[in-house]
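Quarterly update from the structural biology core.
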Amino acid sequence: MKKKNLIIVTLLILMFLFIFGSYKLIEFLDFKSSISNLEEYNMIPENERLTYKQVTHKKNKYLLVGFKGNNPTYADNVILLEKNSKYYVLEKITNCDIGNETAYFKDGSFYIHCTGRKANIIQYELDNKEVKKSYIELNYKDVPNISQLHLFVNNVDDEYIYLFSYVKNDDTIAEGQKVKCSLENKKCMYY
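Predicted structure, tokenized:
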């Protein structure tokens, strides 16, 4: 009876290993085919990077890398997926100056303001190798003293996006550096 139980346990272990191995092989082949259409990126040297943010989301490592592009006024950037020490381009963001303070990551999304560009916040939602781009158009009517050209994204929660600017339109007015904007109605207010 013991020999029969030992054979059954051995067969169950072998079956489990076969199923697990098959699953991992399918996962690997699926990953290989899914990134085959992505452009591989050669990481630029650290001293040439203008921006560098690295985040992990759903077991994937993503990087936001900025560099001096072809336009002398604005920089270029890429959102990369890192797999097996290789980098793959998910999104190219051209002519957009991004600093570590103008890009914020939360819950699978980069929230970015292009310095020198008016007002809009761009949201890049990451899902494995897919990127969904959308614009958050905010209403700055009630916050006239904040510079819409020089916004930093400080935080994002379920209700608000929090922005900051070192530049005010009128330095004689105390308020104007910090605003929070409703993600529901898009209205901004000082805080």
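The first helix runs from residue 2 to 35.
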